[in-house]
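ok trying this again, last paste got cut off
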Amino acid sequence: MTEQPNTPWISENSHSCTCGELVPGDVLVVERTKRFAVLDAAPEDQENVRLTLRALHGGPDFHAVHPRSGMVEVAGERVDPQAIPLVVPTGPGADFRDGDRMTVLRSAQPEREERHYVRREGAWQLEGGQGQGEGRGAGGGAGGGAGAPMPDDEMRALMALDPRAIVCRLDPVPRPGRGGRRVVVTGVGAITPLGGDAAATWQGLLEGRSGVRRLDGEEFEGLGVRIAAPSAVDPAEQLPRARARTMSRCAQFAVLAAREAWADAGFDQAEVAEGTLDAQRVGVSIGTIIGGAPVLVDADRTLKERGERHVSPHTAPMIVPSGPAAQVAIDMGARAEARTVVSACASGTEAIGQAIDRIRDGHTDVMVAGGTEAVIIPAIMASFTAMRALSPGAEGPEKASRPFDRARDGFVVGEGAGLLILESEEHARARGARIYCEAAGWGVSADAFHMAAPRPDGAGVVDALHKALVDAGARPDEVMHVNAHATATGSGDAAEAEALRTVFGDDAELPVTAPKGALGHLQGAAGGVEAVAAVLTLHHGVVPPTVGCEEPDEGLGLDVVTGAPRPLPESGDLALSNSFGFGGHNAVLALRRVRAA
């Protein structure tokens, strides 16, 4: 709260004098426990003097008229009036929001006592282990034990006290300029190189396993790089054959992940069909890069080798990038919308961000959101190899993807899907749903620099990080974990690290993990799968290690979690999940943990 240097210590030696003898800098002793500095002493009339006073450690000015001959007690030392800050207190009518901070200063006491609160989940938490709440220890008369959260009504009562003795100043979080509904995550689903569902994927991340392996299919013979991270299960085998034949592999991944997430959220597919859940309030938002493009490659080969009659009639609807979102909507009966986001490797994260907005602004109540991709095909592998973007895997597949490692040499192509069930908080609580965390906000930006290289100074990423924090109504010091994009390329990892240091400082104790060491780079699905990992990190309170990072690059200046899982820090509430793509597409998702009651 202090905006100028603290006032000096005032000794207990005091003496009496008349009001007419007071000069600026004198300190009045009132009721033996309160101290007020004299800022001005001016004649009011022939018999009275008008005093301008301010509490010893800061606060608003107030005036008092006293007889010149009236006796007052004055402290033994004077102070510099210019060193006492003018603080305008916040009145009890202010609006509160989670993330707001309140500074409470017992400004008239000899010993400065300043306490800091932060509002979390509708109540005020005392920061820094400061002990008993101010309202419970400063004559506020409030109940509750030491360290107990202070409800809003008690904080308002504290703010209504005489500001000449206690000053309360609200420091609100940045208010997002959009609708106000809170959005929460109630379900997760994933199919990845580590497992056929979210639980297996999460366990693989905690165990530090790698899903990267050598590609043995004959179609990959002759390629310069033959390692990738294929799905742990074949999605076509998890679906009825007739249904699978109408979907691209990319769409198959999305449907399976959506079914898992839907069930994990406590929904039943029959709820939409039977009308107990309004289908027009349920939507889909899925990111992908190429969608069913591999189907087109196969169809073209079939046309050339076997002729027109052998090309499947399902080819055209399967190749469109909007196919996965449409197939999920059909499978679930979701009629509000089925949107597709294509923004390179930021697609999955941006799809989640757009879903947050749709719920927050009242267009939908429930959204299935995330990313899906299936790009492990020879043409794509050959293109990335020609760009020198892929790791050659010289030390074997399991050591190919090395995010933030000193010897990182490129990314590994992966495939799969990761989806979240997002709901408005009131909708989730009305049905008694389990809440993993809050989907607090997101940010997006463009590098406007190069089609394949990131801006070296990370300025575009910095913009996305700042936007995500503002949208979430949070400050950098509230972030306790970053789920990094970190593809294991030299320039990409360096640019992201530069951006993180810019936003959070060189000395920030911020645990960072990079799932691509275990999963490879799932392209358009990366943001969705990594969002699932970030949600489970908050829910379980543990950060998975970064597979492949055996010798962290010290020049990056990051606290990379390696070797074994690490507990989340106790301080802070926010986790960020970063996704960046070709062309300078940057997207950052902000998730806020929900503490147990």
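PB: full thing came through this time. The first helix runs from residue 134 to 137.
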